[in-house]
Amino acid sequence: MIAIFLTALFGLAPPSNTTAYDTPNDGGGSITVEWQLSPDDAILEGYEIYRSEDGIDFKKVGFIGKNRRVYKDETEDGKKYFYKVAAVIDTARAYSEATGGVVSSAQWIDLNKINIFIALLIFGSIILYFIYHARRGKEFYLREIAGLKAVDDAVGRATEMGKPILYCLGLGYVEDIATIASLNILGEVAKKCAQYDTKLICPNADPIVYTVAREIVKESYTKVGRPDAFDPDSVYFLTRSQFAYAAGVDGIMMRERPATNFFVGWFYAESLILAETGAATGAIQIAGTDALAQLPFFVTACDYTLIGEELYAASAYISKEPLLLGAIKGEDWGKLIIGTVLLIASVIGLLTKLPVLSIFK
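RE: above sequence
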């Protein structure tokens, strides 16, 4: 109280050396204001920041507590701003000198994220390396996936029984990764159906996915030399409504009695209804999705399930597309490198005082 009384009596010391500059390494819209603390900082309530567009009429734009010397102000790029800072105690104010005019702008490069840029170059180079060699015919090892090994058996069983194969792409949109992976698998399943002259049924819940799926199936029949066997009515749009789609597919399973059901793509709560109905008909069921909440239902009710990333690997595994194979191998090596770096950094961090964790920021 004595210090406050003396300060009020003899005057409050203002902050000094106030500077303002365009905030570095940002996307614009920000100016940083810095100052040296007032000698009376210990008894202050804090600092008020004032801004002006003409250097004359200042308005308060912010307040921060004592013992703090940096403030970031949100601004409009291209406009010139002037700043000054006031030390505050009760109703007393001690203003600093005003800064010169400052203009904010966006920076092309964020130097604080240069580590991400280097990692992007490394992983991008690895993926491009594997894609290049995959296109030149080099064979890469991919772990066998039980669900995909069963595709041939499933198509063969349907052929022997004279029953159709049902393929559901789920409720995802065409831009979803799970839907894209499912479309790749659909193309290979359609080829086998064409080779064995097995009927394929593919009801869709999205009109765009339906259009793409229809062209993929048609192309698959053409690639194996059976364009005449393609039935345009085998791929069709059912409905966009979730449970109406589930009811429609259930009806197909009960009427057509497919020998094999594929549920590959993005699914919601209808996954259990579909898988349970398919299991009741006695069909072999192969499912695959990256919807974590639906995986337990598929694992329980289906014979084979592609879990998470297995779905993406499956599309590369079954299609042998160089672009997909290269991406899968590149991702595997990327994970190996990240794991190795984390392990080494953890050991260094435990045994030394080097700031190794800063490279992950």
